[in-house]
Design brief:
The protein is α/β, with parallel strands linked by helices. 44% of the residues lie in helices and 17% in strands. The protein folds into 3 domains: 115 residues, GTPase HflX, N-terminal domain (Rossmann fold, 3-Layer(aba) Sandwich), CATH 3.40.50; 59 residues, no CATH class; 183 residues, P-loop containing nucleotide triphosphate hydrolases (Rossmann fold). Helix 5 packs antiparallel against helix 6 and helix 6 packs antiparallel against helix 8. The longest helix has 36 residues.
Length: 390
């Protein structure tokens, strides 16, 4: 019972344990982005506040059915856990429920897979009511596949004084309650989605185009959003600083306006359950007239990150929406001024700028003015502004 309660708390890293040591495991299955994936893994763990004791590497052709890693590697992990008094082992991989159970029994400490780590970070970052509902839904869906691990010792009929009932096992009871909670969350999120849909239809009737900021996490989307709209959206130099979507009106000219949408950042192998749970948030991306795909100008794996973002856009049905690449953070490069890149037809394809210093922001506005040359009536602008303020 104690293990189950700890596992099903809202966060994997509580306030008392977040400075305790954790051991990381990152195995190479002959993938091309092994080094980049490890750097991202480290950043994810650091964003929880945990202290990394060591990182265990290894190379395999395929995962072991019982422990994911080989028995020799598990013994090595156990040695590091004992030496560092680690309270948690985190795998940068997806583990089956049985693999997690077997590893915890062997290592004698908690084991967390990549999806569980990301869910923990999302639980910390969500601020709005909708965001918290989305995170809880994703957590419960993930938990439902692992429920047997915590209740194995109670896999028996209820019995004893005060416990006699209809013959339902404790596990069945918990599954039923979990299913009821998931159903309730979906219903509440459905109402939120309906309200968002009404807002989108209103903007479509008023012919106000929506521009959605997309990109890999920690690319500076929220900083760019604040610069364009004079908003005060929370921005920080860490992964998943933004989870809650924000819409703001942006004036391009006296009678020319559009709606900017700031959205959650993407990541390598974003868990499918998260994509499903955040569907109402990502609707703003799918229904946008243009996507501003924000990338880090100096990133060595820039093209690889663009590929991963486009993969998620394909999952949500937004891969057909036109894109404008925004190469951000040119202030971190030597001798790299702001500029516009155009194709052979003269269309702008990339904007190089710095959202922090403001260099090149005028070029981005120019690009948006070229893409949206139509003039919007002032009455429509005022109507949409009132809706967004609400």
């Amino acid at each position: 019972m104690e293990l189950f309660e700890r596992r099903n708390s809202n966060a994997a890293f509580d306030e008392n344990a977040k400075k305790e040591a954790v051991v990381l495991v990152h195995l190479n299955f002959n993938v091309a982005d092994f080094a980049e994936s490890e750097l991202e893994f480290i950043e994810l763990v650091k964003s929880t506040g945990a202290e990394i004791a060591t990182i265990i590497h290894g190379k395999r052709q395929r995962p072991d059915a019982k422990f994911f890693a080989g028995t020799g590697k598990v013994d090595e992990i156990k040695q590091h856990v004992d030496a560092s008094d680690a309270v948690l082992v985190i795998f940068n991989h997806e583990l089956s429920p049985s693999q997690e159970r077997n590893l915890e029994a062997k290592l004698e400490c908690r084991v967390l897979a990549r999806t569980g780590l990301i869910l923990d970070i999302f639980a910390r970052r969500a601020r709005s009511h909708e965001g918290k509902l989305q995170v809880e839904l994703a957590q419960l869906k993930h938990m439902s596949t692992r429920l047997v691990r915590g209740w194995t010792h109670l896999e028996r009929q209820k019995g004893g004084i005060g416990m006699r009932g209809p013959g339902e096992t404790q596990l069945e009871t918990d599954r039923r309650l979990l299913g009821q909670r998931i159903k309730s969350l979906k219903k509440r999120l459905g109402k939120v989605q309906s309200q968002r849909e009404q807002g989108r239809r209103s903007r479509q009737r008023a012919e106000i185009p929506v521009v959605s900021l997309v990109g890999y996490t920690n690319m500076g989307k929220s900083t760019l959003f604040n610069k364009l709209t004079s908003a005060e959206v929370y921005a920080d130099d860490r992964l998943f600083a933004t989870l809650d979507p924000t819409l703001r009106r942006m004036k391009l000219h006296d009678t020319q306006a559009l709606v900017m949408a700031d959205t959650v950042g993407f990541i390598r192998k974003l868990p499918h359950g998260l994509v499903e749970s955040f569907s109402s948030t990502l609707d703003e991306t799918r229904d946008a007239a243009l996507l501003l795909h924000v990338v880090e100008a100096g990133a060595a794996d820039r093209d690889d990150l663009i590929y991963h973002v486009n993969d998620v856009l394909h999952q949500i049905g937004a891969d057909e929406v036109p894109q404008l690449i925004v190469c951000n953070k040119i202030d971190q490069l030597d001798d790299h001024p702001a500029r516009l890149d155009r194709d052979e037809n003269g269309r702008i394809t990339r904007v190089w700028l710095s959202a922090v210093t403001g260099e090149g922001m005028d070029l981005l506005r120019q690009a948006l003015q070229e893409y949206f040359p139509e003039h919007i009536a002032s009455s429509s602008i005022n109507k949409i502004s009132a809706e967004l303020a609400d």
